[in-house]
Design brief:
This protein is 24% helix and 22% strand. By secondary structure, the chain is of the alpha+beta class.
Length: 79
């Protein structure tokens, strides 16, 4: 996502403490050490949450497909 959208979108992986890291790197990962984010969103692995710059949640998807996020961004973000 970072490569496709450049400076408009900053994508991060939120990882559970002690959980699998998948393809995440330390530069794009946030570690949910106490599990707050996972509890707040009742998150399962692969959940996508788009947080707008004003702090509101703009989009939630229950799979790791980027097509829904891309459609959301195309609607709101000018090319």
């Amino acid at each position: 996502m970072n490569q496709r959208c450049g400076s408009v979108v900053h994508a991060h992986s939120v990882l559970r403490a002690g959980g699998p890291t998948g393809n995440a790197t330390s530069s794009d990962s946030l570690f949910d050490i106490q599990g707050h984010a996972y509890r707040a969103y009742d998150a399962k692995d692969g959940l996508l949450v788009l947080v707008r710059p004003d702090g509101y949640v703009g989009f939630i998807a229950n799979d790791d497909s980027l097509s829904g996020v891309q459609a959301y961004l195309e609607y709101f973000v000018a090319p």
